[in-house]
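Good morning N.,

You mentioned wanting to compare the apo and holo forms, so I went ahead and generated the holo version with zinc ion. This is what I fed in:
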Amino acid sequence: MKALLVIDVQNDFVPGGALAVPAGDEVISLLNELQPHFDLVVATQDWHPHHHKSFASSHAGHQPFDVVKLHGADQVLWPDHCEQGTAGADLHKDLVTNKIEAIFRKGTDPEIDSYSGFFDNGHQKSTGLADYLRGKGINQVYVAGLAGDYCVYFTAKDALQEGFDTFLIEDASRPIDPEGFEKAKEDLQRLGGKIVQSIDLLHPS
Ligand code: VGL
Ligand code: ZN
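and this is what came out, ligand included:
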């Protein structure tokens, strides 16, 4: 049984948004086409409280994209984005949502960032996504969306660690930084993940 995880297709991550991923909007039509080819579709939503610690504005003297230590780990500081209840946090209006059975929210703890749909960055708290997928009989997990080098990558990495057969759909994802995305894909392959293109799913040979 195959699940598609649609990662953070939210207004703040597309051009014009607070943390725009270059060409982020280009994944939407592909994700819509892909959804009917899966047994289960789940979405994630970055969902931060006001003054979240991943925001540069919460750290005096720092700018977006600076890196600081937060609870002992490196933390990239971001522009304020995906604040709970704002339009920027909404899923993009062009994303078809009727097949999305559940939306897992992340980044809700004011102190800890959470790139993965499964765990916060320190792996302290689970969102329950792995058990949800297992409960639905899923063994194959396909991950796509935004951003390829952050939330897509970390979600795929945790999916592997949770024992799922894991695929990153490259052309249905866009990164913040292309170089970071290359490293992310290499890392996933080293860990046993596979990089695929949407054509492999839409027109299997
Ligand atoms: C993301 C940075 C901060 C993402 C979320 O969805 O990839 N990146 N928060
Ligand atoms: Zn975030």
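The pocket of zinc ion (ligand 2) is lined by residues 46, 48, 54, 78, 81-82, 107 (CB under 6 Å).

Happy to go through it together on a call whenever suits you.

Best,
F.
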